[in-house]
Amino acid sequence: MFMSYGVLSLIAVVLILAIAVMTRRTLFAMAVGLTAGTIVVAAKTNANVVDQWFGYLYTSLSNEDLQWLLILISVFGILIALFEKSNAVVDFGVWASRFIRTKKAGLLGTFILGVVIFVDDYLNNLAVGTTMKGITDRLDVPRTQLGYVVNSAAAPICILIPFSSWAAYFGGLMEGQGVVGSDGTGLSAYIQGLPFTFYGFFAVIVVLLMCFGIMPIIGPMKKDVVRARETHNVFPEGTDQGLIDSVVNEELPDRSKAKPWNFLIPLAILIIFTFATGTDVLKGAGAGTLAAMILYLAERKFSFREMCEYSFEGVMNMGFVLVLSVLAFAVQALNGDLGLSDFIIDVTLPIMKGAFLPMVVFLVCAVYAYATGCFWDLAAIILPLVVPLATAMHVDPIIACSAVFSGAAFGSNTCLYGDGIIICSQGVQIKAVDLMLATLPY
């Protein structure tokens, strides 16, 4: 039976955002928000608080989407570790520095690589951040600025290119709701609605203006840009000193001897297999990792035993992201019990009228995605409500669906505990809250 919590349904979201911004400790903020929300649910249902709290963790860990994500993160952790131990990323960075010699070129190169790897936002956020951070560090580009460019070329690009995992999923949802294009498929309807997917275009235009130096540096990023220029420290305040020292003291190989192939071959195989398996990025990542293992063993970069040790180390290096992902899915389950989506929809339904419907749908979905960390789930929940509503109000359902997808992309770009921010922050090695604060002003 559904229980109404009213404004209390916001308690977990508000606490997480407030504590994360004040303390810059995302895990602590997530744990506090989950605990506070659990107390509210337990008090309303007369349940045991401890059992309820662990119940959300069990629900999270039994979620197939989370299981898939944890495996994917672990595989990427192995691949990144192999890249680092073989010096493949460093070699590629030194080789690429022949062509990327200015800050503007570094930012534009990051964006272009993000467009090239458009097939999936997970792949984009991790691969581009890992690839470009060494290059942009030497150009005094702060990691928050790099992260903003990487993340803004992830979900927004994915929704604008109809061959991505996002397009395939959303097109399937549209077809399931009877919204089809000229050839009777949901994908053609999705393509028809692309001109109205305004957030994707907006995000891409803004990040390009920033890369070219036309858009001024604003928000917390401005302080990071000044610090990087004056001290060559590209990390935001509060970063572990050991990480900063490791970047500053990194020894670079001779530019003439740096070869990019040890990095480009596994990455190319990763992308090709992702396409070949129907945008299954997990299979692609597995193929790319296997190719890296074979290549580096053949070149005797390290022994088989060392490779196993490095692989284990790579998974452990992703420990923070793995735990954060579990808590994020637990909070999503909590928000479901708190009725957060119903509360947001009930508050906004009275103003959903006629020609304003697409705008209101976008605002509702943007707030919902930012508050809950749900993006694909959002579309599955909201579309069955939006399509009949649009039909009843004589609004083109394709335009209304485009507003939903735009809201989902906004949430992926901004939500502190969403998988987009979490994975991107890991790729560029900064805190998720720092990336969120750098992104929000834009």
Helix and strand topology:
Elements: H1 11-23, H2 26-45, H3 49-61, H4 64-85, H5 88-96, H6 103-116, H7 121-137, H8 143-152, H9 155-160, H10 165-176, H11 186-193, H12 198-211, H13 220-231, H14 241-248, H15 261-276, H16 281-298, H17 304-317, H18 319-338, H19 340-348, H20 357-372, H21 376-392, H22 397-414, H23 419-428, H24 432-439
Helix pairs in contact: 1-2, 2-18, 3-18, 4-16, 4-17, 4-18, 5-7, 5-15, 6-7, 6-8, 7-8, 7-23, 8-23, 8-24, 10-11, 10-21, 11-22, 15-16, 18-23, 19-20, 20-21, 20-22, 21-22, 23-24
Return the average pLDDT rounded to an integer: 85
Query: In what range is the share of β-strand residues?
Result: under 5%
Characterize the quaternary organization of these chains: single chain
What's the helical proportion of residues? Answer: over 70%
Overall radius of gyration: 22 Å
Poorly predicted residue ranges: none
Largest sheet: none
Number of strands: 0
Structural write-up:
The mean pLDDT is 85. The protein has 24 helices and no strands. The longest helix has 22 residues. The chain starts with 10 loop residues before the first helix and ends with a helix. The chain has 442 residues and is an all-alpha fold. The chain is globular, with a radius of gyration of 22 Å.
